[in-house]
Specification:
Chain lengths: 150, 89
């Protein structure tokens, strides 16, 4: 399942609900998950908040493509991808990626692959609202590049 | 050619161009209809729309929701998008 959501979400609640509702009890031996959370600091500057923009239509299509690619490479029972858009505050969860499989190798590797591909290719953009700068014009700053995860 | 025929001709020859993030701010708009008469590739469209702007950053392209290359062909009715490197997750 892939969800793009505007409101704050609780990843632990989403994980528990999805796992219960997918009805695969007894089949999976592994669930690997990653949760990305907004920090209150970036590149040495204090950050008050953030706006996450996306490309409606292409974002969903690209995430679906990533998940299908993972399913071809690993034996997966289920996957869950949730990504937040809109206005965020520090400590808000931004992204949840989870994969369920029979053995841990598939869940670990697939969730990592989905997350890294999402970070490098899925059309989302972050704009930070900084608290430390004195200049109003510099208060909002686009994040120019994601750090490499490998 | 009547007014409505002229409008229909314009639409038949046009693409929808979208801009995101810093490019949207730089161009001051999120989308436009563009007549592609004489424009064959994504790069042709980009050169046309970015003319006169100081675009110093890397720009990515997509056509109909798929990543495209500079030499990818554009056709009337396509949705072409230009955006900076992605920063989600």
């Amino acid at each position: 399942m892939i969800k793009i959501i505007q409101k704050a979400f609780d990843p632990w609640h989403e994980l528990a609900t999805f796992q219960r509702e997918m009805k695969r009890e007894g089949e999976f031996g592994a669930c690997a998950n990653f949760i990305g959370t907004m920090r209150d600091m970036n590149e040495g500057d204090a950050v008050n908040g953030m706006f996450l923009e996306h490309y409606p239509g292409m974002t969903e299509k690209h995430l679906e493509k990533i998940v299908q690619s993972a399913k071809k490479q690993w034996d997966l029972l289920e996957t869950l991808v949730i990504h937040r858009v809109g206005a965020l505050l520090p400590n808000d969860p931004i992204v949840l990626v989870a994969a369920w499989s029979v053995h841990r190798k598939d869940a670990f590797e697939a969730s990592r692959f989905i997350m890294e591909d999402l970070k490098s290719k899925a059309p989302f953009w972050k704009k930070e609202n900084l608290s430390s700068t004195a200049l109003q014009a510099e208060k909002n700053r686009w994040v120019e590049k994601n750090t490499s995860g490998y | 050619m009547t007014q409505s025929n002229s409008q229909m001709y314009e639409e038949a020859m046009s693409v929808k161009v979208l801009y995101f993030a810093s490019l949207k701010e730089l161009f001051g708009r999120s989308e436009q209809q563009l007549n592609i008469d004489g424009l064959k590739t994504v790069e042709d469209v980009w050169k046309h729309v970015s003319k006169g702007y100081d675009v110093s950053q890397q720009v990515l392209y997509s056509v109909n929701h798929e990543y495209a290359q500079a030499d990818s062909l554009v056709h009337a009715g396509d949705e072409v998008a230009f955006f900076p490197p992605v920063t989600g997750g």
